[in-house]
Write a structure and sequence with these properties.
Chain lengths: ~575, ~290
């Protein structure tokens, strides 16, 4: 019996490998296990190899192990590409229909399974995914009943006949396992507490967070790894009176949400690096006109098309200083799927409270990795629409950009009597009309640039302390693997994450940099972007160190542990 | 009818004396008063350039965005609050160079927005550069030996992409322009009104006089039927696009929002945003 298990399923891309993995994870989550996923796929529809690594266990983990105990190979490439990941006691189970006509080190344990054969015998080769899922389940000790309900759910739209055929496959697989795979009982998972939990990826949680926050409009252009946000909201928004549009490009997307948000509807778009570059001029317009918008940036490897299906955290500097001219914006960096939900809700509040663009900065690993999550509480964050103009007795002329104590002026939504005003991307006066006088320019720049300053006093860094004098600090999905490394290390260091990078929580950071001897900033980019921002805002160059990785893959446990060795 | 002056914010436009845009600004104000649109229910969105200033001279809600993007902004506003009358306006560069793609997609999308192109076939505010609507051979600072590129034919482009309302106007034909814009605003779907608006400073070819000599008025042609797609296309080819009035109208195609929302649905901006716990749970259960 195992408290946890890492396994890899690989096959030809487009033949259902990922969806098999997801069904398996769903089944595990419904039985009380926590799962975490990492995927490896390429930018094509069919052909090539894709693989999904799953960590399943009784305890919640936000990383996968560097090594896997079980590999399920549905094609030759999976064996060739991943056998080196096998732990010393690991086993490769491969589809007996494969030829495997290549050399492998002798110590590799290879066991054939009649995956295709059983599918074929029960009706169609196509069902080999069900067959594979049956085998994995049998090996992990999940009962046939539990898998059956997962399969029923997976094929519920395909009709009775398809479901029954798949159930026959499962039955035959479990029978085969019963008779032939008894010696692998050591692979079974310890029974879990049967608390059924949801399984979702970052993009799902972002979509649900948007809905719960009252977002009723999305305009977006498809791009990996952000498309699921648009896809989900295309289903959800119409059911809640909202509108989701796939538009002609990211320039249209950002300008459309500026229009919609100006019109009074909570609005968003979701994109990745290339789309974000196209949006920059529009983001500046939102900054200048003080229009609240929420932009999800699911980062991938850049620049240009870069590695479109690979992980990176390299848009940070671009967003932090972004675009031409200067304007305020807010950058939130969630570290888990649950966090994606709450951070999205928070993003909509901050956008309207501070009347500026808010970026929800995700990354490929977070946006696309499924995780078992704890229950989400939509009412934990109350909707706050910020300062809105209420038609009053009409004593004074309405000034859209009125200079106020907190630098935030009430918004009048179009349609509101008494709130008529002009909005322009030109520098403007309090009334909103173009004005190029130096005094006015200074006042308006000060107003815009200072309005988010109170956020600098927030506590936005969460630290897990072991009373050490070295802190590993990260953002986004990178936090998960650091937590993992610290949990298995004999001498763990302090570690933490930052959940709002702009405005930088300078008060808290100053305290942290005073307290610790060394702060190691761990991030997936070349130019040490977070470290650079913190140094430029606060100094402490001698205390701030960097661990970076920019090969398209997230950090592994071993890489973090090796780095830790230098600081103990 | 409300007063025309009610739609004027008393700011003196910074256009050159004699600019065609003055007439379009006035036409918009007359249209608003004829249709008795409450000032706060009218939204004018514009792009960048001389034409872009038009929104700043209207006593309505107005949004002066960025170059080429008046249509995305206007469509966003309409999606957000369908109770507003949304007018987008921009120049020929706005609509047919930097923003051409948005023009085509707005035509496809068919949202109930009226788009007025203040077309002077020149980039005026940059001090005289060629436009995608400038004729071949047109000399400007960027084409000193004359433009070599074929101009875009806005009418044919719009018609061939399925526009549901296409009108053209001329700054000097105010009454016809007003009538055309009134019908465009009343049209339930996307409407494009391309207005020939002479630039008196930089375009010495396409002058008021030139247009008077070349334009054909469709409302004076008794046999012309704007419901007839083929006739509209023929007319555009026959006149090389130099005709004014309602060129084409198709009233049978529902606008985008009509297809997305029930007719009695409230505007997005007025919705109750609270999500009940039970309802949220039913969504979450799909992830189990």
């Amino acid at each position: 019996m195992n408290k946890s298990m890492s396994l890899l399923i690989g096959g030809i891309q487009g033949e259902g490998v990922i969806s098999t993995g997801v069904s398996l994870m769903k089944a595990l989550s419904s039985l009380g296990y926590y799962v975490y996923e990492k995927r490896d796929f390429s930018s094509r529809i069919k052909g090539g190899n894709s693989a999904i690594t799953i960590h399943a266990g009784i305890e919640k983990k936000l990383w996968v192990e560097d090594q896997v105990k079980v590999i399920i190979a549905l094609d030759d490439d999976t064996v060739k590409k991943y056998y080196h990941l096998l732990s010393s006691d690991g086993i490769i189970f491969y589809d007996a229909a494969l030829t495997l006509d290549f050399q492998l080190p002798e110590k590799i344990k290879l066991i054939p399974l009649p995956i295709t054969e059983i599918a074929k015998a029960s009706g169609a080769t196509l069902m080999k995914n069900t067959s594979a899922m049956g085998f994995i389940s049998a090996l992990l000790g999940i009962t046939a009943d539990n898998v059956t309900s997962a399969i029923k759910n997976k094929y519920k739209h395909k009709g009775e006949e398809i479901i029954n055929k798949n159930i026959t496959v499962l039955k035959n697989v479990f029978q085969y396992a019963q008779e032939n795979l008894k010696e692998y009982q050591t692979l079974k998972l310890t029974p879990a507490n049967k608390i059924s939990r949801p399984l979702m990826m970052g993009n799902d949680a972002i979509s649900l967070g948007a809905l719960a926050a009252g977002c009723r409009f999305i305009a977006s252009y498809p791009i990996t790894p952000a498309s699921e946000v648009m896809e989900n909201l295309s289903k959800l928004l119409p059911k809640h009176g909202g509108v989701a549009l796939q538009v002609e490009d990211e320039i249209a997307a950002v300008n459309m949400i500026i229009g919609a948000s100006y019109g009074g509807t909570r609005s968003m778009t979701a994109t990745s690096g290339p789309g974000l570059s196209l949006m920059m001029e529009g983001i500046g317009l939102a900054g200048m006109t003080e229009t609240p918008i929420v932009i999800v940036d699911a980062q991938r490897s850049g620049p240009s098309t870069g590695l479109p299906t690979k992980h990176e955290q390299s848009d940070l500097i671009g967003l932090y200083f972004g675009g031409h001219g200067e304007y305020p914006s807010i950058i939130l960096t969630p570290t888990s799927v649950e966090d994606c939900f709450y951070a999205t809700m928070r993003a909509f509040n901050l956008a309207e409270e501070y009347q500026c663009p808010v970026f929800l900065l995700s990354d490929l690993s977070m946006s696309l990795s499924h995780q078992t999550i704890d229950e989400l509480e939509p009412h934990r964050i109350q909707i706050n629409r910020g300062k809105l103009y209420q038609p009053n007795t009409g004593q004074e002329e309405y000034k859209r950009y009125q200079l106020t104590e907190d630098d935030i002026s009430p918004r009048a939504l179009p349609g509101t009597a008494g709130g008529l005003h002009h909005t322009t991307g030109l520098e403007h006066n309090e009334l909103g009309f173009p004005n190029d006088q130096p005094g006015n320019r200074r006042n308006m720049m000060d107003k815009r640039m200072k309005k988010t300053a109170p956020l600098q006093e927030n506590e936005e860094i969460i630290i897990h302390s072991h009373q050490r004098d070295v802190l590993f600090l990260s953002f986004g999905s990178t936090y998960g693997v650091i937590k993992g490394a610290m949990e298995i290390a004999e001498e763990p260091l302090d570690y933490g994450y930052i959940q709002m990078i702009k405005p930088l929580p300078t008060q808290q950071l100053k305290r942290i940099l005073e307290k610790y001897k060394h702060v190691v900033i761990v991030e997936n980019n070349y130019s040490q972007q977070l470290a650079t921002i913190i140094k430029s805002e606060l100094g402490y160059h001698e205390k701030i160190h960097s661990l970076t990785k920019y090969d398209g893959t997230p950090f592994t446990l071993n890489e973090i542990i090796t780095e830790m060795g230098g600081w103990i | 009818m409300t007063n025309i002056k009610d739609y004027d914010n008393n700011i003196t436009p910074n256009w050159c004396p004699g600019c065609g845009h003055f007439s379009i600004q006035r036409a918009l104000q007359v249209v608003a008063s004829r249709l008795e649109i409450p000032n706060e229910k009218m939204m004018v969105v514009s792009g960048i350039g001389c034409s872009g200033r038009i929104s700043g001279y209207m006593n309505t809600y107005s949004f002066h965005g960025i170059h080429g993007r008046s249509l995305p902004i206007a469509q966003g506003i309409k999606a957000s609050n369908k109770d507003l009358t949304v007018i987008a306006a921009g120049g020929d560069g706005d609509g047919f160079a930097i923003g051409l793609s948005h023009t085509l997609h707005a035509i496809r999308r068919n949202m109930n927005v009226t788009y007025i192109v203040l077309n002077n076939q020149i980039y005026g505010l940059t001090k005289g550069h060629t436009s995608p609507l400038s004729e071949v051979g047109f000399q400007t600072k960027s084409t000193p030996t004359g433009s070599l590129e074929n101009p875009i034919r806005p009418g044919i482009v719009a018609l061939s992409n399925g526009i549901t309302f296409l009108g053209q106007g001329f700054s000097a034909y105010q009454e016809q322009l007003i009538d055309t814009i009134v019908k465009a605003v009343q049209h339930d779907g996307f409407s494009l009104v391309n207005v020939f608006s002479p630039c008196v400073t930089y375009n010495k070819i396409n002058t008021y006089q030139w247009f008077r000599e070349h334009l054909v008025k469709l409302d004076e042609d008794e046999g012309y039927n704007p419901q007839d797609y083929q006739m509209a296309m023929n007319k555009l080819i026959e006149t090389d696009g130099l005709c004014t009035g309602i060129i084409y109208q198709n009233e049978g195609t529902p606008s985008l929002l009509e297809q997305l929302q029930p007719k009695d649905a409230s505007a997005l901006s007025k919705m109750d945003l609270q999500l009940s716990k039970d309802h949220f749970n039913s969504i979450i259960n799909q992830y189990r």
